Amino acid sequence: MFITFEGIDGCGKSTQAALLCEALGGGALATREPGGWEGGGALRGMALDGSLRHPWSEAFLFLLDRAEHVARVISPALASGRHVVCERYHDSTLAYQVWGRGMPLEPLREAAALAAFPVPDVTLLFHIEPELALARVAGRGRPDSFEKEGLPFMRRIDEGYRALAAAEPQRWIVIECGTRTPAELFEVVKEKLSARGLSL
């Protein structure tokens, strides 16, 4: 099964992805975007340091990173029968670039289709109020270029994620984070994934 974790910065998806991979054991592959493949660290750095100037540079960089990530990591793992748990995927690009940056939606959707990116079986959206998310991010130390954009940017991304989830309810599972502890959230994750046929 191909499972992706989505949400604005500070929602807790990294913790939940790690807990799920631990629960699935050796049959699961944990990965992330950007930079989830050998050599991808340079692209991750370019994406997060805020140095890009052309309005399409971020979008093209994320598509390049994803193409190599799919070819080198995701597709081989799925072909071998492993579960793949990926923290951020193409829906992040849509939420951040389209709703966040104002880029057009259809070219990015068409690029994913042309590149034959695998579609996740399940996408978990960890929904958190942007104000709380930014408070969490502020406590982590040095923010990346996206986190520096502030509350209006995060609100647009939150709107984008909710729109994407509403358009494909058969794929998306929306989990309200609120004040739940990581352990409480993981119980919800297990319940929701079990209902989709994943044995935990």
Give a summary of the structure in a few sentences:
By secondary structure, the protein is of the alpha/beta class. It has helices spanning 13-24, 41-48, 57-79, 90-100, 105-114, 130-138, 151-167, 182-195, and strands at residues 2-6, 28-32, 83-87, 122-127, 172-176.
Search tags:
200 residues; alpha/beta; five-stranded parallel sheet; 8 helices
Please give the structural blueprint.
Blueprint: E1 2-6, H1 13-24, E2 28-32, H2 41-48, H3 57-79, E3 83-87, H4 90-100, H5 105-114, E4 122-127, H6 130-138, H7 151-167, E5 172-176, H8 182-195
Parallel strand pairs: 1-3, 1-4, 2-3, 4-5
Helix pairs in contact: 1-8, 2-3, 4-5, 4-7
Estimate the mean pLDDT confidence: 91
Instruction: Give the helix proportion (percent range).
Output: 40-55%
* Overall geometric form: globular
Secondary-structure content class: alpha/beta
State Rg. Answer: 16 Å
Task: Describe the fold and architecture.
With 200 residues, the chain is of the alpha/beta class. The protein contains eight helices and five strands. It has a five-stranded parallel sheet with strand order 2-3-1-4-5, sandwiched between helices. Helix 1 crosses helix 8 and helix 4 packs antiparallel against helix 5 (105-114). The protein is globular and about 45 Å long. The model has no long low-confidence stretch (mean pLDDT 91).
